[in-house]
């Protein structure tokens, strides 16, 4: 199947047509991104800073680049000038660094806080307690060059759909709970980034506003 057919098929299955599609292009060549771009896609997700920067240099400037992977603090500076949204912010230290680099280039960088919703230990993210600690602290109020526009989560890698949907539901409920609170000025929780190729429909059932889809658009990744 071609990228065009894949995109068509995905869009046709969306439960919520307004849910934003982030085309996850990691490991795929710039030619594939250009092909999707020519079909109207403007949001692309990458998980390695070097790859992201190299692709951004060659590809059209109106692409909205999403950093979806685990981000190391020392790499923030390379993408501060152009990154559209950082999905995986999982510590205050990282948020501070993003703020610092954003200030240097006179920008405000939009971020999502990654919340740990999966069973696996290995997935990054805040747990609920850590999130509330962040909100209660002083530092968060000083970060004027970042804006937290939502939450991001990755469900457990399992065939058990009930469990996956429950995890997404938990993230939705957390967002709703936070929205009831008196949040720092640099918070405007709108987005819920959840759902990938295997579980984006379950995520949309739980009000996901952004799905990050790679394999179903570009095919299997070859890591060699
Ligand atoms: C790779 C990746 C995706 C896309 O995964 P697919 O299963 O190929 O759709 C989504 N989110 C994150 C954080 C990823 O690293």
Automatic annotation (TrEMBL):
N6-(pyridoxal phosphate)lysine sites (modified residues): 26
Annotated Alanine racemase N-terminal domain residues: 2-221
Segments passing through the bilayer: none
GO terms, molecular function: pyridoxal phosphate binding
Listed InterPro entries: Ala_racemase_N, PLP-binding_barrel, PyrdxlP_homeostasis
Coiled coil stretches, renumbered: 154-181
Alphabetized UniProt keyword annotations: Coiled coil, Pyridoxal phosphate
Cofactor(s) it depends on: pyridoxal 5'-phosphate
Highest taxon of the lineage: Bacteria
Gene3D superfamilies per the UniProt record, alphabetical: Alanine racemase
Known function: Pyridoxal 5'-phosphate (PLP)-binding protein, which is involved in PLP homeostasis.
Family: Belongs to the pyridoxal phosphate-binding protein YggS/PROSC family.
Cited PANTHER family: PROLINE SYNTHETASE CO-TRANSCRIBED BACTERIAL HOMOLOG PROTEIN (PTHR10146), PYRIDOXAL PHOSPHATE HOMEOSTASIS PROTEIN (PTHR10146:SF14)
Protein name: Pyridoxal phosphate homeostasis protein
Species the sequence originates in: Mongoliibacter ruber
């Amino acid at each position: 199947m071609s990228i065009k057919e894949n995109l068509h098929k995905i869009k046709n299955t969306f439960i919520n047509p307004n849910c934003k599609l982030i085309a996850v292009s990691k490991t795929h060549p710039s030619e594939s991104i250009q092909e999707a771009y020519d079909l109207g896609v403007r949001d692309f997700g990458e998980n390695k800073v070097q790859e992201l920067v190299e692709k951004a240099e060659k590809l059209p400037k109106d692409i909205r680049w999403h950093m979806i992977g685990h981000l190391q603090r020392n790499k923030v500076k390379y993408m501060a000038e152009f990154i559209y949204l950082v999905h995986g912010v999982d510590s205050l230290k990282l948020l501070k660094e993003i703020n610092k680099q954003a200030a240097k280039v006179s920008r405000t960088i939009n971020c999502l806080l990654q919340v740990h919703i999966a069973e696996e230990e290995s997935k990054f993210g805040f747990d609920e307690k850590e999130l509330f600690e962040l909100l209660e602290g002083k530092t968060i109020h000083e970060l004027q060059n970042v804006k937290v526009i939502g939450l991001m989560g990755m469900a457990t890698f399992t065939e058990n759909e009930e469990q996956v949907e429950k995890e997404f539901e938990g993230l939705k409920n957390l967002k709703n709970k936070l929205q009831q609170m008196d949040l720092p000025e640099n918070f405007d929780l709108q987005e819920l980034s959840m759902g990938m190729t295997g579980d984006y429909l379950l995520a949309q059932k739980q009000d996901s506003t952004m799905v990050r889809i790679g394999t179903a658009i570009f095919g299997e990744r070859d890591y060699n």
